[in-house]
Design goal:
heterodimer; A: mainly alpha; MetI-like fold; 2 domains; 12 helices; 72% helix; disordered N terminus; B: 288 residues; mainly alpha
């Protein structure tokens, strides 16, 4: 976060008296509880996950023994590569829809929002005030064969009677696109809002057309925001299984469903851990690519 | 999951302080304005549907929400606690939310204080802590949930309220820290020094100067932690065992039929959440 950089502790305060031990320890003491919590319940579980993926588990009891079975990764990926591909395909489609849908509104709020900006931002966040699972269930209602959309269309004979959306990939993509739209719109808004409007005025003063000003000033300046929005939407959508389970059919299973079943139904902790590790690796590749291309600190500004 | 809350929160507070900038007068944006309102309508539509269905009559014998509209009734609001499993799941979620909010807010605020005030060489490892926080926010939630379950299984801990609480605090800390830190960034430290110069000891300074100044930030962080906790499904589903929080109960109900009370709870939570959000925006604007 850039705006925290300016608050370096003033040297005068510490120089006045010799820093006692407590003062020197202060940053560590302050960060100790959070550090321990994240160590024990974030970093250690990650290591455990990697270790579990190399163990062999008894499916009935869930008891695992370390066997350094690196083949687990290859085995799981070859078993479930189509689910990985479906996840990438669905999450990718939803993310692209979200980028296209939310860019104009982010642009509009940033440029024309005026004093109502906060209200419009709140409107973008409105879906979050309804529980994620309930939101998805409501989409099941809306998209159901006799629901408000299809029922109306069918009674008007605009679509054939046997037409359906639920239990197809379209319904899953629609649900993902709805549920993750704020994740795209807000980073885009932050990126567009940050553009120095005088640069845009300069472009107009130099006789840029509206279109040129957009393609040669606004778009290049929002590229980091576009990538951040892509990652912040794509990564959670990739691991999502709620939309697929509630809105999708049985054929296009996403990897999240496989991981959930491995852990909770089959007690295949080794397989589930290996798949989770692969999913995490895909997410990390995206983050590292971003850091490499656009600098490691910038993405944090969009969180 | 709601990473973007922090950004919105930050922007909301930032715009309030900004000096008015001279810029060209722009008109309402015409087509863009219409389009934007349509997107907002799209975002709000499912909420209207949810509230509407919470007033829907049930004509079949089973107390389940039906896809068709059968007429208006307030029956489900009167019988809001008519499904015992749902009601206890709801109260569990509230208890869990309050407990995890208190813990995550304290722990996360302390970390935010450390990150804002100290940097290397006084605070070695600061960058590492920031990177861990970032990974914690960016990693897919299913990986966090699955890895926590792996840990609890490996060290043989029975799943229940404690594991839920540990997990909820774990995924809330980073969000609280990011939110509180954004508010702390504008903190004027000379006020603390003035207090010290006037003879206040460090505890009095913290209590009388620091805490009142950073309270809005802490409140925003706490609201975020609470929102994350009551809405969490993925992690909870992995670590809950036989103790079922509200979202997990609702998810389970999708297989057998959803009682209308689910939408009643959903509508009421929505109403309270919107009120809190407006209150927080108003407070941010007045700089309370």
């Amino acid at each position: 976060m850039t705006h925290s950089e300016g608050v370096a502790p003033p040297g005068g305060a510490t120089r006045r008296r010799r820093a006692p031990l407590g003062k020197a320890l202060a940053p560590y003491l302050l960060s100790l509880p959070a550090g321990l919590w994240l160590l024990a319940l974030f970093l250690v579980p990650m290591v455990v996950m990697l270790s579990l993926s190399l163990q062999s588990c008894n499916f009935g009891t869930g008891a695992c023994v370390m066997t350094w079975h690196f083949g687990e990764f290859w085995q799981q990926v070859s078993l479930y590569h189509s689910q990985f591909l479906v996840s990438i395909y669905f999450a990718g489609a939803a993310t692209i829809i979200d980028l296209v849908v939310s860019f104009p509104i982010a642009y509009w709020i940033a440029f024309y929002g005026g004093s109502k900006k906060n209200f419009f931002l709140l409107m973008l966040l409105v879906p979050f005030f309804v529980s994620f699972v309930i939101r998805t269930i409501v989409w099941e209602f809306i998209l159901s064969d006799q629901g408000i959309v299809l029922g109306t269309l069918k009674s008007a004979h605009l679509v054939p009677q046997n037409f359906h959306v639920l239990a197809t990939g379209y319904a899953v993509v629609a649900g993902l696109a709805y549920n993750y739209l704020p994740f795209t719109a807000l980073p885009l808004y932050v990126a567009i809002e940050r553009i120095d409007k005088t640069v845009l005025d300069a472009a107009y003063d130099l006789y840029a057309s509206k279109r040129e000003a957009f393609t040669r000033v606004i778009l290049p300046l929002t590229i980091p925001g576009l990538f951040a929005a892509f990652l912040l939407t794509f990564i959670p959508a990739l691991g999502d299984y709620v939309n697929q389970q509630i809105l999708g059919g049985t054929s296009d299973t996403m990897i999240g469903t496989v991981i959930q079943n491995a852990f909770l139904t089959n007690l295949d902790y080794a397989g589930g851990s290996a798949l989770s590790a692969v999913l995490l690796a895909i997410a990390l590749v995206g983050i590292f690519a971003y850091a490499r291309l656009l600098g490691s600190r910038t993405i944090e500004e969009y969180l | 999951m709601t990473a973007t809350f922090a950004a919105a929160e930050r922007e909301a507070t930032r715009t309030g302080h900004r000096a008015p900038r001279r810029r060209r007068r722009r008109r309402g944006g015409g087509f863009l304005a219409v389009y934007s309102w349509l997107v907002i309508a799209y975002l709000v539509l499912p909420i209207f549907v949810m509230v509407a269905y919470s007033f829907n009559k049930v004509t079949t014998g089973l107390p389940q929400v039906s896809f068709t509209w059968n007429g208006f009734t307030t029956q489900w609001y009167q019988e809001w606690s008519g499904v015992p499993g749902l009601t206890s799941a709801f109260w569990l979620t509230i208890r869990l939310g309050i407990a995890s909010t208190i813990l995550a807010t304290i722990v996360g605020t302390l970390l935010a204080l450390a990150l804002v005030r100290y940097r290397p060489p006084k605070f070695r490892g600061r960058t590492f802590v920031e990177q861990v926080m970032f990974l914690n926010i960016a990693a897919p939630e299913i990986v966090l949930g699955a890895s926590l379950l792996g840990l609890f299984v490996t060290i043989n801990v029975a799943r229940g309220f404690t594991t839920l609480l540990l997990a909820h605090v774990a995924f809330s800390i980073a969000y609280v820290t990011v939110t509180v830190r954004a508010r702390l960034a504008g903190f004027d430290r000379s006020l603390e020094e003035a207090a010290a110069d006037l003879g206040a000891n460090s505890w009095t300074t913290f209590q009388k100067i620091t805490l009142p100044l950073i309270r809005p930030g802490i409140l925003a962080g706490a609201l975020m932690a609470f929102a994350l906790s009551i809405d969490d499904f993925v992690t909870s589903n992995f670590v809950s065992g036989n103790v079922v929080p509200f979202p997990v109960w609702v998810y389970g109900a999708t297989r057998v039929g959803i009682p209308p009370q689910v939408f009643v709870f959903g509508s009421v939570i929505f109403g309270i959440g919107i009120l809190c959000a407006f209150a927080s925006i108003v407070m941010a604007r007045r700089n309370l």
